[in-house]
Design goal:
Rossmann fold; 15 strands; three-stranded mixed beta sheet
Length: 289
Amino acid sequence: MKVIVFGSGGMLGSDLVPFWQSLCEVKAFPHAACDVSNREMVKKILGIEKPDVLLFLAAATNVDRCELNRDYAFRTNTIGVEIVAQECNRLGISLVYISTIAVFDGEKDSPYDEYDLPSPMNTYGLSKYHGELAVRAFCPDHWIVRTSWLFGGGMKDMKFVAKILRKASMNDTIKVVRDCVGSPTYTADLAKGISEIVERFQFGTYHLVNGGVPASRYELARETLRIAGYSADRISPCLSSDFHLPAHRPKMEAAESIRLKILPHTLSLPDWKSSLAGYIDLMHRDLAN
């Protein structure tokens, strides 16, 4: 099987590309090598490479920038997806689109499953949902994989877990919201899970997150410090309303999968706490070398 990865330069790509390269032939294209909103560029690459499967990791993920600049959000998250989905369908390429639990409004009091109805509450979520609609409309041979609260990518990462560790190492004051709940998910586990979905599961939409009890940002931050050997009491809880940000955040971004439980094959990812411990240990070993 030959696979192309668009958007390989991000946090998920840093774990996904090496893992998939151990399984099959992979060609990775970061944004600089392929702007997915440029149809001629997409057509040229797909015409030359002729992959069996395309993994669409490219995304505008800065939630506040999306809210302030709709062009930034929809260029990659929707228009780019439309173009790639159309070209995949034309060439008979199966498409994997990585989406987000942020397509829901966060008002549910329990984790979202694949049969809840999307209702995005911010521009980022709306642009990703329109990306999903484009995949379904233009490329029948597809897997849509929704996930949540990613961590991974090592110390170069600028996402939540790495930021908490940096602040702790600099003795900064750390205030973290306690009223937003999600399913922390390790990119290395997600990369493996996506490969299993492509190998064993029928086309469709899947929720894929680490197992374990969903956590608030506050609980995730405390667990991060505890594992890293800092006092968890250095984390102070606060409310989302304490931060005046351009984009509203869903209160509930935890997820579960019905489809991965009831289809002939089953799939689950490890408990997020054990994966977080493995990730932090890996970062410590990288720093020591």
